Amino acid sequence: MSFLSKVMVVKRRAHFSSDRKGRSAVGGAAFEGTRKKKSAQARNRVGLLIAGFAVVYVVIGGRLTQYGMAQPETTSSILPADRLMASRPDIVDRNGAILATDIRTVSLFAEPHKIVDADEVVEKLSTVLTDLDVKSTYSRLKSNSRFQWLRRQLTPKQQSQILALGIPGIGFRPEKRRFYPGGRTAAHIVGYVNIDNRGVAGMERYVDSQGLADLASVGMTSNQPLEPVKLSIDLRVQAIVQDVVSSSIGKYHSIGAGAVVFDVHTGEILGMASAPDFDPNDPAAGGEEGWFNRMSNGTFEMGSTFKSFTLAMGLDDGKMNINSTFDARFPIRIGGFTIKDFHGKGRVLSVPEIFQYSSNIGTAKIADAVGIDGHKDFLTRLGLLSRMKTELPEVAMPSQPRQWKKINSITISFGHGVSTTPLQTAVAGAALVNGGKLISPTFLPRTREEADLVATQVLKPSTSRDMRYLFEWNGANGSGRNARVDGFDVGGKTGTADKVVNGRYAHDKNFNAFLSAFPMDNPRYVVLSFSDEPKTDKGNGAALAATSAAPMVKEIISRSAPILGVKPKFGNDGSALLVSY
User: Fold this and answer.
1) 425 close to 384: Cβ distance less than 8 angstroms
2) Residue 223 has pLDDT above 60, yes or no
3) Which of the ends of the chain has fewer CB neighbours closer than 10 A, N or C?
4) Could you read off the pLDDT of 497-509 as tens digits, one per residue?
5) Where are the domains of the chain?
6) Long-range contacts for 506-509 (Cβ within 8 Å, ≥24 apart)?
C-alpha cells in the first residue's frame, strides 16, 4: 500500500474516533445524530401503531357492551327451519302401538313491512279462518317488526284456501305437530306438548327432562327420526281402565274416579286412568279439572284400605298372629272423640273378622299395641309418608300430622289423618302380597330381575303370606264380594272415607276406594279403583265402596285378565272347566 493510501485510511478512521474525554469528532457526531433521529422516528411509529390498535379494540369492546346491554329488537321471531321441523321420539306402548307421534303441518306468518292494506288482509283471512281474532291480527300486521305469526299449525285444506286468496306479504313455514292417535285413552300418562312441540306434562315432559329439551335449546335436534320411547302400559288394558273409569262417573254420579293395574313383581304400570280427563290433541278444551291427575297428583284419605297396612304392621311386628283376638265390644273414647264400628258386632273379634267386618275398634287396638313410633316408622317404610319416585312428573307429596299423638295413630290406623295418592296406596299394597318387597312404580318396561335390584324388603315373607290369606278371606266373605270374578280369585279391602269439608268430616261426601290383588293363590297384579263423592240414584251420598269402587275392579279384571295372560281356574284344584262338553 502506498503512503498516500495509508494517509486516506487514517483519515477515514479519524471520522469514527473520539477523544479520551468522550467528545466525538466532527464526522462521528454527524453519524450519531442521524442514528438517534431514525431511532426516535421508529419509536414514534410503533407508538402510533399501538395507539391505533388500542383505539380500534376499545371501540369494538364498547360496541359489544352496548349491544349486550341494549334491549333486543324483534325483527324475526321465526325459528330456523331445522328447529321448526325437529323431531320428537314416538311414544309407544309395551307392544309397539303408537301413543304419540309427529305429523307434518304448516304455520301462517306475515311480513308486516310487505303488507299494503292490513284491513283487506284481515278481511280475506277471516273467510278461511272464521275464528280469527280480527283486532289482534290487525295489530300484528301494522307492527314495525318484519315477522309475525298469524296462525300456527294449519290444516292442508286451510293452507290451500289461503294460497288461493293470493295475499302478498304472507307465507307458510313447515312445522311438526304432535298427534295422539288414542286421544283421551292415556292422556294423563302420555301428557301433551305446547305449540312449540315441547313437553308440558306426563311422559312427554319426562322425555324432555332426559336431555331432549337441552338439545333443542342449543339447536342440536334435527328432523331425523328418533328411537321410540317404549312405555310399560298395554294399550289394550289402558283402554279398558279408561273406559271403566270414565263411565263410572255417570254410573255413580261422582265428581271424579280413577284406577290402576300394577304388576306386583316388576313395578310396571299396565294401565292407569283418572277422570275427568282431556284430549291431548286439544288440551285446552279439558280445563284444569281434566288436567288434574287424581291417581298420582291428588292426595286423599284412603279410609279402610289403610286397615290392610295396620294389620300387616301388627303381624310383622309380632304383636299378634293370624289367630289373635281383640275385644271390640265397647267404643274407644279418647281426646273428646269416640271411636266405634260402623256395623259393630259387639263381641271379641279374630284378626280375620276385624278385616272382614272392617272394625275400627279392633284396628285401633292393633295400632295401640304397636305404638306411635312403630306405626309411623312402618308407614314410612312402606313409602306412604314420602313423595313417590317415578318417571311421571305429576306426583304429589302425602300429608300427615306435624306431631303424632295417640289419637292420630288411632285414626290413621283406619285411614283418617293421613292423605296419600291412590297410586302410592296401590304400590304399598303390592308389597303386602308379593312377598314383602316394596318396588317403585315405573311407566317404562322393567324385567323381574331389574325390579329385584331396586326392590326393598319391607315385610317378612310370613306377613305377606298372612295378608294374602286376609285379602282372599275378605274377597270371599267380606266387602270384596262385589269384585269377585269367577276363575280369577280376586281378594282385597274396601275403604269408605268421609271427606273433610271446612275442617269437618262430611258424612254425605265420601271417597270410596278398593285395593285388590289377583289371583290370590299367586298374586301377579294389584288393581286399585276409587270413586270420589259417589251418589245413589236418589242423589244422596250413601253409596259405599262395596257398591261403587269394588264393581269397577270387577269389570277391569274380567275384561283385562285374559289380555294379561292370567288363566282362569275353576274347581277346588283349579282343574275344572267352566262348561262341561
Assistant:
1) yes
2) no
3) C
4) 999 888 888 888 9
5) 81-135+147-230, 238-560
6) 507/541, 508/540, 508/541, 508/542, 509/533, 509/541
Separation CA 348–CA 367 (nearest Å): 17
Q: Please answer whether residues 247 and 534 qualify as being in contact, where contact means their C-beta atoms are separated by less than 8 angstroms.
A: no
pLDDT at 182 over 90: yes
419 secondary structure, DSSP code: B
pLDDT, tens digit, 9 for 90 and up, residues 418-446: 999 999 999 999 999 999 999 999 999 99
Domain 238-560 has CATH 3.40.50.720: no
Is it true that domain 81-135+147-230 has CATH number 1.20.1440.230? Answer: no
**Whole-number Å distance between alpha carbons of 36 and 16:** 16
Give the span between the Cα atoms of 336 and 321, in whole angstroms: 31
365-400 per-position pLDDT tens digit: 999 999 999 999 999 999 999 999 999 999 999 999
Question: Which residues of 407-519 form beta strands (DSSP E)?
Answer: 437-438, 456-457, 491-501, 504-518
* Backbone angles phi and psi of 233, in degrees to 5: -70, 150
* Spatial CA neighbour of 100 closest among 211, 209, 187: 187
CA pair distance 530, 494, nearest whole angstrom: 10
- Count Cβ atoms within 10 A of the Cβ of residue 25 and give its class: 0-12 exposed, 13-18 middle, 19 or more buried: middle
Separation between Cα atoms, residue 349 and residue 328, nearest integer Å = 6
Predicted pLDDT of residue 131: 87
Using an 8 Å Cβ cutoff, are 280 and 191 in contact? yes
